Amino acid sequence: MGLRPGEQIQRLGQIRVVDVTFESLDTMLQSSGYGRGECEMEGFPGMTGKEFVEMFAGHMKCSPETEVTRIEFEYVKPV
Predict the structure, then answer these.
(1) Strand, coil or helix: 26
(2) Is 76 within 8 Å of 13 (Cβ atoms)?
(3) Range of the domain at 27
(4) How many domains does the chain have?
(5) In sequence order, what are the residues at sequence separation of 6 or more whose Cβ sits closer than 8 angstroms to the Cβ of residue 50?
(6) Is 2 a member of any domain?
């Protein structure tokens, strides 16, 4: 997310990057379990993979076939 003029960064904590992969957005549609798990990790519990792909693609103006960067991380130290 970008910052508007005058906005300040809000630090949430220190993280450690666990994994970085590149995958097609529609990978979330191939397995309902995988899609739901990814939605939960993304902060959208209760959303299906299909719902997330539609929301993300619409917001980012891309297609479900678009390759995205998936960054998995863990919190090391909260603020």
Answers:
(1) helix
(2) yes
(3) 14-78
(4) 1
(5) 28, 29, 35
(6) no
Q: Is the pLDDT of residue 1 over 60?
A: no
Distance CA 12, CA 70 (A): 20
Tokens of 52: 């997330």
H helix runs in the chain, sequence order: 32-42, 49-60
23 pLDDT above the threshold of 60:
yes
Residue 5 three-state SS = coil
pLDDT, mean of residues 40-56: 95
Q: How far apart are CA 11 and CA 60, in angstroms?
A: 24
Q: What is the DSSP letter of 30?
A: S
Please tell me whether residue 27 adopts helix, strand or coil conformation: helix
Look at residue 9 and tell me if it is in a domain. Answer: no
Distance CA 18, CA 71 (A): 8
